[in-house]
Amino acid sequence: MSPSLLLNLVVFLPALGALAIALLLGKERASEIRWAANIIVLVDFLASLLLLRGFDFGTAELQYVTRLSWIPSIGVEYFTGIDGISLTLILLTTLLGSIALLSSWTYITSRIKEYYIFLLLLQTGMLGVFISFDFFLFYIFWEVMLVPMYFLIGIWGGKNRLYAAIKFFLYTLAGSVLMLVAILALYFYNHSVTGEWTLNVLSYYQLSIPPDLQWWVFLGLFFAFAIKVPMWPFHTWLPDAHVQAPTAGSVILAGVLLKMGTYGFIRFSLPILPDASLQFAPFIAVLSIIAILYGALVALMQKDWKSLVAYSSVSHMGFITLGIFALNPLGLQGGLFQMLAHGVSTGGLFLIVGLAYERTHTREIAAYGGLGQVMPVFATLFAILALSSMGLPGLNGFIGEFLILIGSFEWNPVYTYWAVWGIVLAAAYLLWLYQRVMFGELKSDKLAALQDLNLREVMTLLPLALLAVWMGLYPQPLLRTLEPPVNAIIERVHPGYFAGTDVSPPALPSADAARVEQEDEEKSAVDALADAAGHARVRQ
Amino acid sequence: MLEYFWLIPLIPLVGVTINGLFASRFIRNENVTGIIASGCMLLAFLIGAGAFVQLAGLPVAERNVQIELYDWLDAGVAHMHDNEAGVTTARFRVSFGFQFDELSALMVLVVTGVGFLIHVYAIGYMKHDPPDPGYYRFFTYMNLFAAFMLILVLGSSYAMMFIGWEGVGLCSYLLIGYYYQKKSAGDAAKKAFVVNRIGDAGFLLGLFAIFFTFGTLDYDGVFAGAAHYSAGAGVLTFITMMLLVGAVGKSAQIPLFVWLPDAMEGPTPVSALIHAATMVTAGVYMIVRSNVLFSLAPTTMMVVAAIGALTALFAASIAMVQNDIKRVLAYSTVSQLGYMILACGVGAYAVGIFHLMTHAFFKALLFMAAGSVMHALHGELDMWKMGNLRKTMPITHKTFLVGTLAIVGVPGLAGFFSKDEILWNAWAGTHGSAWLWAVGTLVAGMTAFYMTRMLLLTFYGNSRMDEHTEQHVHESPPVMTYPLIVLAILSVIGGYVGIPANLQLGPLAALHERIDITRWLEPVTSGTRAQEAPGTGDEEHTAAVAAAPLQIVGAIGEPVTVVLQEERSEQAGHQDHTAMEWTLMLISTAVALAGIGLAYRVYAGGGVADEPFKRFAAPYRVLWNKYWVDEAYDAVFVNRIKDLGRGLWVLDDALVDGTVNGIANATLQAANASVEFDTRVIDGSVDGGAGVFWSGSRVLRALQSGYVQNYALIISVGVFVLVSAYLFF
Amino acid sequence: MDALGLNHYLLLSALLFGIGVIGVLIRRNAIMVLMCLELIFNAANINLVAVSRFRPDLAGQIFTIFTITVAAAEVVIGLGLVIAMFRNALTVNVDEIHLLKG
Lengths: 540, 729, 102
Known about the structure:
The structure holds three protein chains of three kinds. By secondary structure, chain B is mainly alpha-helical.
């Protein structure tokens, strides 16, 4: 199998699986559907691990490139590939996807077939976003992702699910529309300069856009991404969506969907609009710090377990945007690392809430107490994930937050000073939550009768807990993967940043290089065929 | 041993793994669990001791062994802030590395040695009837704590120190909250962690500033870089102030001391190990480790000394009136930590470590003896419900007596030497002053008072226990008393490693020649080694690492040739100093004795609980309520933050989400209006046009009967007519 | 005169056609209507075959084969419709069904 086919397979396998389930399995065959869906995502995860094998970690160039003409009349191509940033996010997505599906085994009892089909489609949508380097394709995946999520919240959600689902959908859609305008502006500007109609992201990297146009385009993209992150004050869809969504929905929402926004900033805003990024950076830093403190303070006072975790996400995502717009290697790397770390730890925390909810059917923190006595395994895993979320050294949250803070300190220590308080508050709200839920006397006989986790449930949490420890103790493989693309982006934003160091920043991937590579590959494939044919003839 | 010193922090982790994963399911034997945990500590201690001896055998200049296990964090390139060290860019690189020098070695011995004794003691103390299901958990946490504490003292960079720093905070949290069914325990645990986190936030900022000043977080690199700075540089003041915030949090100094007294909610061995002997001294260790930086920041030094002195005074005054045996010891710990910080503040770093060590001996002893009393009295903490225990608990009594005499500063015991050194340096040290000395001496008197009071109320006088309790009072089992005896011995002899100058007479002088803690620590505390450090090039350093990841990186620098300024002047004015030192020593001893006498006078007869309250109502109430600090913090910070959170939540709902919902509503209104317009105006006109056709079609409608055969007939007739027309016309 | 000429065939065909048309128009049972439709088809077929026989041109006969095939398909669909109709209206009487009424 050719490498680029593998990448496309990873992306489309869940969708193909969804199609197969839709056609082949009747809705009364719930158990088969469950098994099939779980196996599909697991295979997809394993397939995504294969991507590591042929990956060159030392370059910022795109790899596993597929480039096909799609709608030539307007210059749309099917152009996919990955660099280190996409690679890590793909792995996160496939992993969280498998875990989210596994966690739904008993949680979902109605309309099982539709549920799994939507989850599988969601997987393809999210994975597609991370591999698209054609704006048209990107936009399609970006929107495709919304639909299954809308249904997941709207059908399998809590009491107020319709409100939450519609809010989520409209909010994100509003952002997307502005993004579309920004993309069109780039499209026409590019034509006016190069005379070429193309939506190729890489060719936009080569543009030097006048500052005032950059400013407007940045603003358009900003709304789309800021809503998705969500940055303060665009965050209010998040608690609603999280609280109402089923567990798997929350896990994926927190783990992957929120990362789309920050991914967009890193992939598009920074390299295409470097001047505007610099110009907007202080403004975004202030919003980030507000998000950090505000999210943490509001989380502190939540009475609903799930919305506490949701607001903690707002706070953590604030760290990520702060790191990104520090616009230096440490901050950006920290932001990317924190994206992965937050996916693992907050995804895990949502699983924790889901497991408790499945047993007691309440999310009211006050209804819990003393769970540590009856559920020791649960208590341990919860503790590890909570600690990783509050950034304890030796666990993954620390690495990300530490790099972000040091990056922002390089930029302006005042920002760091304010952001550091977010860490203090994180300890406060998470430990208080932990105390109220796990410590104390058992509140009722019902709580006393709760079962500890079974094997399947441990299987959903244990990988995340182990990953949290591994990423905290040995983050180097991830950091090394992220570094080349990060350096390329920083060099684009701050030309000459690396002068005087022994680092020579790689160039951003260019469209032409990708094309040449593709041709090489084709040629070599042809050669190989010819060789094989020759060989066969000789044998005859 | 020396080449295996990096195993020291890893060995307790073995205990964590065994007890954490297997004890509750497979081992199911409390003794085995306890022995595994203690055994790990003993093994760590033995390796530490062996390494210590080998280190002592090396030439002074080579007493810094380093090892890098692996690259922990190796991220991007950073631009330095304006600095004098001439570094403009640096790669952020932290290795998971350890270093073993004089200071680390000493700390390792204290942590593992005292830690081992406390683990042994805990085997007996934690055994309950019926068995506590959390027994395994307890020892797992204790070993985990030891591992982090050892990482803290052995780490070769500030980042490593921070790992240990937060790790011990976590273990402290877990162990304070050990009796998690009790709400007060959960509250205390959370308070400890959050208050510590405030300190940690400061530490982090300091860490960042260090990196952007020196381009590295490794001790060697930082201290070498500091040589480029002159005293009083603003950035160094900032760094040290931030580090101080961290130290203040961890070592429970004003204003962040509030968590330590509450931390007594944990089991007593925890109080002894974490909240007396080791973790709380991490702040002192950090300041001593960073002495090169602190010495260059005179402003910070002043603040350090002031905080130390004030805390010592403040906590000692509270301890004088408390009735809870563990709280008295907790405030006493805060006060003694204040002494250590004071010592650091006046530049006598080695003395701070000296007192850290002796304090670890006698305070662990006191806590464990108090625990032994609690054990016998079914968890009773109120001293007014004790009394006359010396008969029934002879060993506990004797060891407690030794501990008391040691902390009070009775000549000849450990506390006397270290405290006297601190007071002398508070007077004569580089940053010393008469005020600091006066405060320190006053605290010595107060210490004598509250310790004597505690001793008398607990072990002497009449028994005030109820009958049921009294019948069951018993001496603790040997597994608990032997550690007490060992610590009692250490509390007596521990002070002879640092004999003050004026007492260096006869055999003591000979002893001083052989063993002196100040001399041992001097390469670290004088900063001389740090200044030698640039001698070894970075290339060598990295090359060695690249060649063999586990290879010892090697010693640093040339033999120490620099003689400190102070030392020289000390030699010159030796005679004067001796006289002065004698005077001060006598005064402080006299003050201590006065404190003992006063306590004896008030409490010897058994005392009356509310007597002092009657005589000194106002000051007594202030002290009894601990100056209302907790209440003030609650009112000023905690509740305000909660209010803020609550307010923001309302705001979030009303304003931010309100805006969103408002926009949604406005959209809906607009949609409604459009619908109206649509139906009335646009649809209206279309409907009008349609109406014409409607009435016309009514006529034709009749034709459409719906019966197929009708249609067929019509078709047939139509065809017939058409064909006929074609044929005939 | 030969025994049978073209006109005989045409006459037969016309008769069949007439019977078919009248059947379609007056039978109430939908199946009978369908059968009458078959008569109409076959009237046309007879025409085609006969003319092809009396003029030297095979196209008519070939065309007939097609028509028979199409008629078979048409019957399948027709009967299917009748069954669907029966399921919905519980009758096959065409005069009881007037869904197309405006």
